[in-house]
Specification:
By secondary structure, the chain is mostly helical. Helix content is 69%, strand content 0%.
């Protein structure tokens, strides 16, 4: 049912966070919220969508949790649990932050969990991604990811990891993982790993919101400001990334008048604040790259220099691929292609897509068509696939070809 699906994507993380605060158990909270959505699927087609769908889900999940506690607990525990769950206006928790989803984010990013488990669990509980979507992002089978999520939640329960933002002295130890997760939530929203739409606006909005919360919590951390600047600058272009007919529009072809000028200005100001601190980190450098793109025409030599710095700070095949794109703008597509051909990025459509574009620019149409086919076979997003198919048709004498 589309209405339930939309509410799930927009409200799942908030509902799980609220129920986790009430129950003190991530697994029980998720089970209660899933029960509530199952009830919504059964009732809403007949009863209609309630005026406040998200509130209905939270209330229904809470009631289901109360019922379960009453069935499973002893008499004294039943009354105590029910009283806790039915307090109408719980006083705010003391501490640095009172945001439920931010507390859940820090819970998922506890050092006791393996880094990959932290990211996967946060994408599930805070971002509301399905297990299949997370498995796609990690390039593993869905069953494998389901087992990882079960183990991670079991670790939280067994290790008695508290549902709270750590004390201020402990925040820096968690920061790297938290920033990585927020960035990944935004990445999934910016270009959905699967489905018909290019963008998941709910995830983009949630990542920006969490970025703002983190900046308020830790205003003296340059990487926090850098991440927020990065998110704002990329988000500012959302309206221009898709045409009126739903087609993907590359950055170079976007109508800049459709960019959100307020977000651009805010992001650029944050970049300037970071630069004044003189302590560059990966998110600050990525934000600086996006700031350069925000000032037309793009200074590609400066972009290459920034990617050189980013490779030194946080080397990865994706960073190297993006640097190759910038080099192609400075030194020509042949120079970029030489760099791309030296990279290994298996099971990711970006490498063959970039290679195809460089081959197209060099007039090597047959090779470009083959590379586009490889990219199409790996792309999970329908809008991206359609874009790649149009580009392949441009270089294919027959106007197409099999992927």
């Amino acid at each position: 049912m589309p209405d339930v699906e939309a509410v799930f994507r927009e409200s799942y993380g908030r509902a799980v966070a609220i129920l986790t605060r009430l129950l003190g158990d991530v697994d029980a909270a998720e089970e209660a919220v899933q029960d509530a959505f199952t009830t919504a699927v059964a009732r809403w087609p007949h009863d209609g969508v309630p005026p406040s769908p998200a509130g209905w889900i939270v209330t229904t999940a809470r009631n289901r949790a109360i019922d379960r506690l009453r069935r499973e607990a002893g008499r004294d525990e039943r009354h105590r649990a029910a009283a806790l769950l039915t307090v109408p206006d719980e006083p705010p928790e003391e501490g640095a932050v009172r945001d439920d989803r931010l507390r859940l984010l820090f819970t998922c990013c506890h050092p006791a969990l393996a880094p990959a488990a932290r990211v996967a669990l946060t994408l599930r509980l805070v971002g509301g991604l399905t297990t299949a979507e997370i498995a796609h992002a990690f390039l593993v089978p869905e069953a494998t990811m389901a087992q990882r999520l079960v183990r991670a939640k079991g670790k939280i329960r067994a290790a008695r990891i508290p549902y709270r933002v750590p004390h201020e002295a402990d925040l820096p130890d968690r920061l790297r993982g938290v920033l990585a997760v927020v960035a990944l939530v935004f990445t999934e929203g910016h270009t959905a790993s699967s489905g018909p739409g290019l963008v998941r606006t709910d995830l983009c909005a949630e990542a920006v919101r969490l970025g703002r919360e983190l900046a308020e919590l830790m205003p003296d951390e340059p990487e926090v400001l850098g991440l927020l600047a990065l998110l704002l600058l990329v988000e500012s272009r959302r309206a221009a990334r898709v045409s009126a007919t739903g087609e993907l529009v590359p950055l170079a072809e976007q109508d800049r008048t459709r960019w959100d000028a307020a977000l651009v200005a805010e992001g650029q100001e944050l970049v300037r604040r970071c630069l004044r601190r003189g302590a560059p980190g990966p998110y600050q450098v990525q934000a600086a790259i996006q700031a350069v793109h925000s000032d037309p025409p793009t200074d590609w030599r400066q972009v290459v220099a920034l990617y050189d710095l980013l490779l030194a700070l946080a080397p990865s095949p994706v960073v190297a691929l993006n640097r190759a794109v910038a080099v192609a703008e400075v030194d020509g597509p042949a120079a970029g292609l030489a760099l791309v051909d030296a990279l290994d990025l298996p099971r990711h459509h970006l490498l063959p897509a970039v290679r195809a574009d460089l081959l197209r620019r060099l007039g090597r149409d047959a090779e470009a068509a083959a590379a586009y086919g490889a990219a199409i076979a790996l792309a999970g997003n329908a809008t991206e696939r359609a874009f790649l198919e149009r580009r392949r048709a441009e270089v294919s004498p027959s106007g197409g070809g099999s992927a």
